[in-house]
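go over whats below:
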Amino acid sequence: MMRGTSVAGKRSTGLLTRSLGAGGALILLAVLAACHKEDKAAAQSIRPVRAVTVEFRKSDETLSLTGEIQPRYQADIGFRVNGKILERPVDVGTAVKQGVLIARLDPQQYRQDFEVAKSEVAAAQAEVTRSQAQEARQRELLKNGHTTRVKYDQALKTFKTATAQLDATRARQVQASENLGYTELRADNDGVVTAVGADAGQVVSAGQMVVRLARPGEREAVFNIAEGAFKKPPKNPTVMVHLVSNPDVTAAGTVRYVSPQADPATRTYTVRVSLPDAPPQMRLGANVVGTVTLDQARTVTIPGSALFQKDGKAAVWLVEKDHTVQLKQIAVDRYQGDWVVVGSGLDQGDVVVTAGVQKLLPGQKVSLAEGDAPQ
């Protein structure tokens, strides 16, 4: 009896477990059906939204940037030899003429080198004179048969060696003379000193910058431009430049140079605008604003509130003819404050939702506010 009761109890427990499993499945199906009904009801509910109609327009966009007036030609000038600077009579802002003394080194060492070179030349000249006379005597003796060919060849060799030595010492003398002249640094052309790199009493090496000399004759406006400005660059544009301090002072220029590589720190490109007719008020270092008109193109602009995200990309809700909405990806060209310039993805006449985009579902019906109906 005890064993029969145990078997019956186990069977009852199994039936109860299966009954609970079936009931749980039914409850789960009921919950899913309720959620589906809620989503369907949400999709079928009419939601009021605001929208705009896409209209392509020809843009006449201008780009303005702040830059600086710089000389087209400037060079870092330094000595060709090492030494200690005795004087530097020019300073930043000094206007110099061609040939004017800019700085002078202590010439004592190079003057001594020049004197030593002169002495070596005199000694070499004396040796050439002696060996030449010896070669002439040996040549006459050889002609009369009073000497051997070996002795004459030796005298000739000595004469040629002395001549070569004289040429070498003369070259050293010329070099010593040039080095003595290099102790004076003079301007290669007219210009203005824009920077200094060494003062009197300082020991400098050959090639080290002592002053930076700029030619003020031709000036340029220099700008640092972001990469986005090159998307629609005009061909051979005319850049209008005016002073920040006085907008009435203007000049027209053309783009002469665009750096091929971005600056590693600022990630911008250097653009140099030539200003052949720059007025005198545009002094070196003055801040200016350059303005250029970009190429005209058909563009469309929508409010920034219309943007939505789909798979991490920009998208918008389009209102169909049956007043349902569908999500469509777009390409954003650039941002202008609260507005977005669309590069591609929209067509003429599309109706784009601009308010309420976060609460919409695909296929949901919407009602447009008065004045937002498709045209």
Observations:
- The first helix runs from residue 2 to 44.
- The domain at 107-181 is CATH 1.10.287 (Helix Hairpins).
